[in-house]
Design goal:
The complex is a heterodimer of chains A (244) and B (315). With 244 residues, chain A is of the alpha/beta class. Chain A has helices at residues 42-49, 72-78, 95-103, 110-123, 139-152, 169-184, 196-202, 220-225, 227-234; strands at residues 2-13, 16-27, 31-35, 57-62, 65-66, 80-82, 157-161, 188-192, 205-210, 213-218. The longest helix of chain A has 16 residues, at 169-184. Chain B has 315 residues and is mainly alpha-helical. Chain B has helices spanning 2-14, 21-46, 55-72, 76-100, 106-125, 151-173, 176-186, 188-193, 198-224, 229-232, 235-248, 255-276, 282-297, 302-309; strands at 135-136, 226-227. Chain B has a two-stranded antiparallel ribbon. Chain B is globular. Classes of the chains: A alpha/beta (244), B mainly alpha (315). The A-B interface holds A 50, 52, 71-74, 76-77, 81-82, 84, 88-93, 97, 100-102, 104-105, 108-110, 113, 149-150, 152-153 and B 174-176, 179-180, 182-183, 186-187, 189-198.
Chain lengths: 244, 315
C-alpha cells in the first residue's frame, strides 16, 4: 500500500527553483534514501512534506490523505515526524524531558508520557544520559536525541535529515544499526544522507535530486552507477568514458 | 519542602495579629505584586512571551468592576469575574495579533506596550469612564462592596490571591500544558515538529494570564479606592509586574514570590526614605541598578541561584 504519494511538488524562492515538479512514492515499511549534491533541494522537500513550508504547487498524499496546507503539528499527529539537520534540542531540559514533550503528543497524561519517553530513551541508547541537560550532550548524542524525539511521537513515517552528519565511523555504525532497527520495527523511513556508505547499505531504494529535479531513482547499486548521478556529484569530466 | 511551605503559610496567616498596621500594609503589597507577577509568569515566564503591557489588564479589570459597582450597583465580588473576562478578551486580541503574525521578542514587547498605552489614552479622554480625573470609589465599609474597615481582611484576600495563583502555576508545571509552555520558550519550531499546537498553547497562556491579572484589577481598585489612568494603565505599573518574576526567577513557581518579597519592601523603604529626603522617584533608580545586577549576575533570577546554593536532599 502506498504510504506517501508526492506528485508535481514545486517550490521556488524568488528566482531560485528549489523543487521542480517532484514525484515521489513510498510504500509502507520502505526505507527510501534521498540524496543529491548540496543545494539540490532535499531539505526543502522535507520542509514541504512536514508543513514548515507551503508548496507552490503539487500534491502530497500521506496515507491517502492530502497534507498540503496542514500545520506542522497536525502533520506530526497524522504520523509523519521529522528531525532537523541542525538539531534543535530544548537545551535547558534533560534528555528525558526533551523526549517527554514529544511523547505527550500520544500520551496526554504525564506519567504515561514519562514512561513512553523512558522506553524511547533506552531504545536509542541514551539511557545513561537520561537526566543530563540536552545542552551538555556531544553531537552524536544530540543526533540520537533528535531521533528519539521524532520516534516518541510514534510516527508511521520518519523523515531523517542527515542524522549521520558530523559523526565518526563508530558512531555512524551505531546510528546505522539504530535506524535499521527502527525500520525493521515497521516504521517507514525517508532518509536524507550524505554518507554514501550508510545510505547505500540502509536504503531499499534511492532517489537522486539535482537542482530540484529527480535525475535518478532505483535500487542503490543501479543509482550509484548512473551516469547522470556521477555527473551531478562530480562534474561531467569524471564520467567514465566507457559509460559515456 | 512541603513542611516548610506549610510553616510559611502558617506564619503568614498569623502575622497580622502580632505586627502593626504599617507592616500589614507592606505585606499586602508584597502579596498583591507577587500575585500579579505570578499571573504574568504564565505567559511571560513559562511561555517566554515577554508582555510588557500587563498594566492594561489590571486597568481593564479595575475599571470594569468599579464602573459596574458605581453605575449598575453590581457587587465587585461579581464584577471581578466580568473584569477578568474583559481583560482575557483583550489578552486574546493581543495574543492573536502577536502569535498569529509571528511577532517575537522585542516586537511582542512593543505590541503589548502599545495596547496598554491605547487603553491609557482612551481612559484619559473618555469622560464616561472618569477621564483624566479617574474614578473614585466612595468608602462604605460594606463587605458586600469589597470594602472592609479592617485592613487585615485585605491582607487575607491578597494572601489567598497569591497562594491560589501559585497553586495554579504549580499544577500547570506538572501537566502537559506546562511542559509545552517550557518547551515553546526554548524552541518553537521544534515544538511544532513534535505535534505541539504552539499558537493554541500560547493563546491559552495569554488568556489565562490576562484573566488572572484582570481579577487583580478589582483588588487594586477597591483597596486603593481610586483609579487613575496614568497609574493603572501606565508603563511603570507594567514594569512593577514584570520586574518581580524576572528578579525572582521567571518560569519558576517560586520566582514571582521571591521577587516580590525582595523588591516590594525595597520599593517601600526606598520610596519612604528618599521621599523624606526630597528624592522622590529615586527608588526607580534603585530598581534599575538591581535589574542590571540581576541580568549580569543572576540571569535566571534569584530562585534558581538559591536552589543551587541549598543542596537537595538525596531522594
Amino acid at each position: 500500500m502506498s504510504l506517501l504519494e508526492v506528485s508535481g511538488l514545486r517550490k521556488r524562492f524568488g528566482g531560485l527553483v528549489a523543487v521542480a515538479g517532484l514525484d515521489l512514492s513510498m510504500t509502507d515499511g520502505e526505507m527510501l534514501g534521498l540524496i543529491g549534491p548540496n543545494g539540490a533541494g532535499k531539505t526543502t522537500v522535507f520542509n514541504l512534506l512536514s508543513g514548515f513550508l507551503a508548496p507552490d504547487g503539487g500534491e502530497i498524499l500521506f496515507g491517502g490523505r492530502s497534507v498540503v496546507g496542514l500545520k506542522p503539528h497536525e502533520i506530526c499527529r497524522l504520523g509523519m515526524a521529522r528531525t532537523f539537520q541542525i538539531v534543535r534540542p530544548f537545551p535547558q531540559l534533560s534528555v528525558l524531558d526533551n523526549v517527554k514533550v514529544a511523547a505527550l503528543a500520544r500520551h496526554p497524561a504525564m506519567p504515561a508520557a514519562l514512561e513512553a519517553a523512558r522506553a524511547v530513551v533506552e531504545r536509542v541508547g541514551l539511557g545513561p544520559r537520561a537526566l543530563s541537560l540536552a545542552s551538555g550532550l556531544t553531537l552524536a548524542d544530540r543526533k540520537r536525541l533528535e531521533l528519539a524525539r521524532a520516534l516518541a511521537t510514534e510516527p508511521a513515517l520518519l523523515l531523517l535529515d542527515e542524522v549521520m552528519a558530523g559523526l565518526n565511523a563508530t558512531e555512524i555504525d551505531a546510528m546505522v544499526r539504530l535506524v535499521s532497527g527502527i525500520n525493521a520495527g515497521g516504521i517507514s523511513v525517508l532518509l536524507i544522507e550524505h554518507n554514501m556508505r550508510a545510505v547505500m547499505s540502509l536504503s531499499h531504494r534511492i532517489v537522486v535530486l539535482s537542482f530540484g529535479e529527480k535525475i535518478a531513482a532505483g535500487p542503490p547499486r543501479e543509482v550509484a552507477a548512473d551516469r547522470r548521478v556521477i555527473e551531478a556529484y562530480l562534474g561531467e569530466e569524471y564520467v567514465h568514458p566507457a559509460q559515456a | 519542602m512541603k513542611l516548610l511551605a506549610l510553616l510559611a503559610v502558617a506564619v503568614l496567616v498569623g502575622l497580622p495579629w502580632v505586627v502593626g498596621s504599617y507592616l500589614v500594609t507592606v505585606m499586602i503589597f508584597i502579596f498583591f505584586y507577587a500575585y500579579l507577577g505570578q499571573a504574568w509568569n504564565i505567559v511571560g515566564g513559562y511561555a517566554g512571551q515577554l508582555s510588557a503591557g500587563h498594566a492594561a489588564f489590571v486597568g481593564i479589570g479595575g475599571y470594569a468592576a468599579a464602573l459596574l459597582s458605581a453605575r449598575a450597583g453590581l457587587s465587585p465580588w461579581l464584577g471581578m469575574w466580568i473584569g477578568g473576562a474583559l481583560a482575557a478578551a483583550l489578552g486574546a486580541v493581543i495574543g492573536y495579533l502577536g502569535f498569529r503574525f509571528g511577532l517575537r521578542g522585542f516586537y511582542f514587547v512593543l505590541l503589548t506596550v502599545a495596547f496598554a498605552e491605547i487603553c491609557r489614552v482612551v481612559a484619559l479622554n473618555v469622560d464616561a469612564v472618569g477621564g483624566a480625573l479617574g474614578l473614585y470609589i466612595t468608602f462604605t465599609g460594606d463587605p458586600r462592596q469589597f470594602q472592609f474597615q479592617d485592613n487585615r481582611v485585605y491582607y487575607y484576600i491578597a494572601l489567598v490571591l497569591m497562594l491560589a495563583a501559585t497553586a495554579l502555576v504549580w499544577a500547570i508545571e506538572r501537566h502537559r500544558f506546562g511542559a509545552y509552555l517550557t518547551a515553546i520558550r526554548q524552541d518553537e519550531s521544534a515544538c511544532e515538529a513534535l505535534g505541539v499546537d504552539t499558537l493554541r498553547v500560547k493563546m491559552l497562556a495569554m488568556i489565562l494570564s490576562s484573566f488572572l491579572t484582570g481579577i487583580g484589577g478589582t483588588f487594586y481598585a477597591f483597596y486603593l479606592f481610586s483609579l487613575q489612568p496614568n497609574a493603572v494603565f501606565g508603563i511603570p505599573l507594567s514594569v512593577e509586574i514584570v520586574i518581580r518574576p524576572i528578579v525572582g526567577g521567571a518560569g519558576t513557581v517560586m520566582g514571582p514570590l521571591l521577587g516580590s518579597f525582595i523588591l516590594s519592601p525595597l520599593a517601600e523603604i526606598s520610596r519612604t526614605y528618599f521621599a523624606q529626603g526630597g528624592w522622590t522617584g529615586l527608588h526607580l533608580i534603585v530598581y534599575g541598578v538591581l535589574l542590571i545586577a540581576v541580568v549580569l549576575f543572576l540571569p535566571q533570577g534569584a530562585y534558581p541561584a538559591l536552589r543551587r546554593l541549598v543542596p537537595r536532599r538525596p531522594a
